[in-house]
Specification:
164 residues
Length: 164
């Protein structure tokens, strides 16, 4: 599954850039630290937009293609920002057979975004995940750390409204 790249303009701050530059400076002489630098960059920015990947590439003297390759290969990295409310729909087998796809489709429609995207106002992001271990409550979604179970498509507007 190919990761999506954010359509939302990058909004990094000078403070974030200074923090990332410190991380790069401390690690730039050891190319094996690339992934660790990327992890710290994601902590700083919340995701790895191309602008941040470019800073890492230049600072670590690693080709941008390599940075992007690592960012797009490992599930721990996100190329899109996360919203204030990160909605994750479980697509594990139990949830899927109980209608998780319909819930996910309805959320996509309600929010006006696709999976792995963030609303333009930064309020909501939407993703699909594998089993979260609440199979008896399927279909299940989480909004940040709050779990919602035994869902139907009709529950979606009420859940979204709760966080607007």
């Amino acid at each position: 599954m190919q990761k999506k790249i954010s359509k939302i303009p990058f909004k990094g701050t000078p403070e974030q850039e200074a923090e990332l530059n410190k991380v790069i400076e401390a690690n730039k002489h050891d190319k094996s630290r690339l992934m660790a630098v990327m992890q710290e960059a994601q902590e700083i920015y919340g995701y790895l937009p191309v602008e941040v990947q470019q800073m890492i590439s230049e600072g670590m003297e690693v080709p941008l293609e390599k940075v992007f390759g690592v960012a797009s290969f490992y599930a721990q990295f996100s190329l899109t920002p996360k919203g204030e409310y990160n909605i994750s729909v479980c697509m594990g087998t139990a949830c899927y057979v109980k209608g998780a796809q319909g819930v996910l489709d309805e959320l996509s429609e309600e929010l006006g975004i696709e999976v792995d995207e963030c609303t333009e106002d930064g309020k909501f992001s939407l993703n699909a995940c594998r089993c979260i271990g609440a199979c008896g409550l399927g279909p299940v979604l989480t909004v940040n750390d709050e779990v919602f179970g035994k869902l139907t498509v009709k529950d979606v507007p009420e859940i979204v409204a709760k966080f607007k």
